[in-house]
Amino acid sequence: MSRYHEVYQSWCDDPIGFWGKAAAEIDWAEPWTSVFNPDGGIYGLWFEGAQCNTCYNCLDRHVENGRGDQAALIYDSPITDTKRTLTYSQLLDEVATLAGALQTQGIEKGDRVILYLPMIPEAAVAMLACARIGAVHSVVFGGFAAAELATRIDDARPKAILTASCGIEPNRIVEYKPLLDEAVNLATHKPDFCVVFQRSQSVAELTPGRDFDWGEFVSEAQPADCVMVAATDPLYILYTSGTTGVPKGVVRDNGGHMVALKWTMKNIYGMDPGDIYWAASDVGWVVGHSYIVYAPLLQGCTTILFEGKPVGTPDAGTFWRVISEHGVAAMFTAPTAFRAIKKTDPDGKFIKNYDLSKFRTLFLAGERADTDTIQWAERHLGVPVLDHWWQTETGWAIAANPVGLGTLPVKYGSPTVAMPGYDVRVVDEAGIEVSDGDIGVIVVKLPLPPGCLPSLWQNDERFRESYLETFEGYYETSDAGYKDEDGYLYIMARTDDIINVAGHRLSTGGMEEVLSSHPDVAECAVIGKADALKGQVPLGFIVINAGVNRPTEEIEQECVKLVRQKIGPVAAFKLAIVVTGLPKTRSGKILRGTMRCIADNESYKMPATIEDASVLDAISDTLKNRGLVA
Ligand code: COA
Ligand code: AMP
């Protein structure tokens, strides 16, 4: 029998008491003056007045309590054929030393440090080192191009950038140094210094006067003590796609974040100290922040940092090898990773080669989990496969099936129920709640729980406009869906122009901005087309300027190249198609929804306000001729 309903009700009855109790799991240097101050910040502030340190709670206190010899982090990198285990004591030493080196170079509480790092232990070390001295880290995913890094440099204005010589993808080595140089060149703000971790796969040439070699940087450093910060001080900024090409700087605080994540490890994921936990994501995403680094360490678990892919490194059995070799109890990944495995090994033959007896639960998130994939995983792994729903902004699950409270019955297509902290409503455009089963916009009644973003980095106005203005008193998730009679949520689609490609959140608006910058493009529209592996892939429609006589294929290829150059390979933008016109309403609004239906071969209702319906037929014919629609 699950305790979920009882626990959720206890939160409804006394939210302050609920989080005050959860906060007892964290070590504080100074207690709070209020668990929640509704008059602080934009919608209130959690644990105001408290002083704490996130790194202390992740590392020092475990070492002080006798956990020093336990593995804190296992680096498993099939792509480089490397494995390395760091105990809590060893990780603490590395973190304190890097923190000391950063302090020596003038990094202080509140300074920003950008981390542009691949999936190597140094990424986690750098995050924790910043946390230790109160510096605010901002991790930038390695699959983004220099221009994206430059935008983040100009917004975060970092004193330092920590990077590596390269990242490694199955088909190529990604040299980070040229990307870093180009980004620093493009950005108006310049960092005081950079630190480069040299990997043997490719050694970078350092820029004299600006760059330190990582090894030398830490070699003489004295370990730094923890610097106490206010619970409400920022721990990190993580940029995520907004509706334009300018990403949103999601801010995470220290105190509320620790309280919420620690609560989730036991109650949602069912993890005890000493358990082995694996989030197969990347430190560049929120899942990596919350569940590769902070939450497992707060809970005294061992976390796995995996540098590889679900297939091809070396085969579709990699996940099972990692689970069996390290005794993983729970794994968290995106459905797309399982679709990739299922496609390569449909009968799950690789699974039979490994002992998965310690494996208890598989968690999925990041995109809609399709029933086929869930059932395939259930059948072959023989453990509960639980979908849960959240966003970069929330930092932890809005809806989940909480293992620690007792798993609820699984309903395929639903990430299950709202977690304590979240009063989730489904409303119509006027903000009126719709009936069970009816689709509407999903909103969360304010205040958001601890761990969610208090604002966007130095942009309260954009925070209010993006999330709080449409429905007064509510946070707008920008997801649409419905609730059933048992309170189960179903997340169906985004209400904005964000698409989800292989579990990565991308802005079609951002891609349109890039396409429009091509000199021959008159106008364009990008939509997310359904894809059996990645969930969605971007598809760009371009109309070329009158009088341009170059071959259209040439322009299409240039457009594809341009998006890769400006946004990065992670955009997975491979399809740009020249069309004669875009469907529009009489007021000039591009009918992207109708184009998506055509691209996905779905039936659609002819919009009454369409200016010229023949454009739709032309698009349909073009897609058929290209073999993109049957
Ligand atoms: N640095 C540089 N390039 C990167 C990168 C990184 N860290 N991560 C991905 N890329 C590149 C890939 O090499 C690929 O480039 P290509 O166009 O030259 O082939 C491109 O970005 C697209 O990557 P991706 O969408 O990941 O596709 P893929 O074909 O390489 O792999 C999957 C497909 C399904 C195996 C892969 O997406 C995957 O493992 N997904 C898991 C999802 C995940 O971790 N989500 C995080 C949220 S939980
Ligand atoms: P990100 O901020 O990158 O984590 O992306 C968040 C978005 O991914 C959400 O707003 C949803 O649109 C989508 N998403 C995340 N998890 C799920 C899920 N379990 N089911 C459906 N959509 C999801």
Describe this structure in words.
The protein has 630 residues and is an alpha/beta fold. The protein is globular and about 70 Å long. The chain has two domains: 4-308 and 388-481, ANL, N-terminal domain (Rossmann fold, 3-Layer(aba) Sandwich), CATH 3.40.50; 502-625, 2-Layer Sandwich (GMP Synthetase, Chain A, domain 3). Strands 5-4-17-16-18-19-20 form a seven-stranded mixed sheet, sandwiched between helices. A five-stranded parallel sheet has the order 7-6-8-11-12, sandwiched between helices. Bound molecules: coenzyme A and adenosine monophosphate (AMP). Adenosine monophosphate binds next to strand 26. Residues 240, 286, 365-369, 387-392, 415, 479, 491, 494, 500, 505 line the site of adenosine monophosphate (AMP).
